[in-house]
Amino acid sequence: MDGGAGGGRGAGRGPDAPPALGALLGYRVYARRWLFLLVLSLLNCSNAALWLSFAPVADIIAHHFVLSTEQINWLSLIYLVVSIPSGVVAIWVLDSVGLRWATITCAWLNFAGSTFRALPSLAIKIEDPFAFLMGGQSLCALVQTMVIFSPAKLAALWFPEHQRVTANMIGTMSNSLGILMANLLSPTLVKKEKDIPWMLGIYIIPAGLACLLATACLWDSVPPSPPSAGAARCTSERFLEGLKLLLHNRAYVTLAVCFGGGIGIFSGFLALLEQVLCVKGYSKEFAGLCGALFIVFGVLGALVLSLYVDQTKQFTEAVKIGYCLTSVVCVAFALVSQLQGQTLALVTICSLLGLFGLSVVPIAMELAVECSFPVSEGAAAGLVVVLGQAAGALVVVLLTALSVRRAEPSTSTCQDGQGPLDWKGECLCCPEPPGPSEEVCAWSLTGHGGGRLGPCQLRGSAGACVGSSGRGASLSRAGPCLPSVHAADGRPLRPLQLLLDALLPHPLPAPGG
């Protein structure tokens, strides 16, 4: 994959033909392409808002409907699970029935799901509200994959070459605006349990509007005349043959794995953000603010980056630089989110995460289409989204499974009626068997220390190992151990805390236990 995505749909076609020459060649752009983009963007925005509408107020929703935190997580996770098989079907549907009928079908499914999930909040007595909530979310989940990758096909069929990346950016980032709406609207509307019916009703409005506009205003799947030479030469392989070509395209597979993994990380970040932060005393409003800043800076970055790439065609460079910077910011979030009182640091990190990571999503989507010619735009973009949904489901399931329920601390703001989940790794302190007494902190970044060990390798000699929970276990270890550092009150300080203490403006408390 070169910087200009050479060898793809744009190879050898040069810049757009001048208007006079384009008219002679039969190329024409239609004003209604913007109406089509508006309808698709509104549908994308509504669907994303429905996806994460429960996440910012997960604790209140759980208490109101008498659900566990795991059940609330499934209301978001079901999107990722359902969209994996439905995404493959959506690729075939988009190429078979056309963009118009696919959009109308998705709009009706989205509207039906938003209404169905609101039924438990009505005056009717419903024995199992979770079934209705899950059913409504499942109907909306059938729509997600198609509305995410449809902008790439719309841009290729309806827009001239110099507007394709920008059109793709508008359609794709509308999904992020929907997530922004959920992060801001849900905490604002739901202060107490009695506000939940009002919130569910509000989310029906954009879904109904998108359904009305799609049914009444969309007339054609493709324009009567192509907008450019690239669209005129747009011939696609059949469905199965196209998938085979994609799997044998090394550049595409590399991009799909990296980009799909990025989508998975962003999905897990947004779905679990409030639950991670409430344990350390941050309010749901602050978690919503962090999610909102993630989206806002991502949209602003995507706007600037799309205009730049439209002119320079440096797709690959933009994606590589963006994801390298994103990796650094992800590490910073993993560390700082486990500390108390770091509001400024968290706000900055979430903003940078959106600026570096979310901004390259439309660029990577367009690059996937460019490097997969002659496979259809729907298949090229759709397979990447399906891989991203699978990665997102894996991230959410693993993080939830590896977290541990513990007694609720005084700093927690979680309101689900249960002890909050502990998301941080355990510190296992292992004294040296016969010889000078030393300690080592073996970091288990995958979850609670009970039985899950980090890099501290064990062998035959036994010793007492105490984690931060205060429970003991019989362990042994090999290799030299690092001497411990203690706070003024005698409690051990973790080496990582000493590093963060030097970097962050507020002093770190010594760990409990």
CATH superfamily of the largest domain: MFS general substrate transporter like domains
The largest sheet, given as strand count, sense and whether it forms a barrel, is: 2 strands, antiparallel
Order of helices and strands: HHHHHHHHHHHHHHHHHEEEEEEEEH
Q: Distance between the terminal alpha carbons, to the nearest Å?
A: 52 Å
Q: How many DSSP E strands?
A: 8
Number of domains: 2
* Global mean pLDDT: 74
At the first level of CATH, the class of the largest domain is Mainly Alpha
CATH architecture annotation name of the largest domain: Up-down Bundle
Described by the principal axes of the CA atoms, the overall outline is globular
Structural class: mainly alpha
CATH topology of the largest domain: Growth Hormone, Chain: A
pLDDT < 50 runs, ≥5 residues: 1-7, 11-17, 425-489, 493-513
Q: Count of helical segments?
A: 18
What features would you describe in this structure?
Its main location: membrane. This is Solute carrier family 49 member 3. The chain is built from 18 helices and eight strands. With 513 residues, the chain is mainly α. It has two domains: 19-405, Growth Hormone, Chain: A, CATH 1.20.1250; 425-503, no CATH class. A two-stranded antiparallel sheet has the order 1-2. The protein has a two-stranded antiparallel sheet with strand order 3-4. Strands 5-6 form a two-stranded antiparallel ribbon. The termini are far apart.
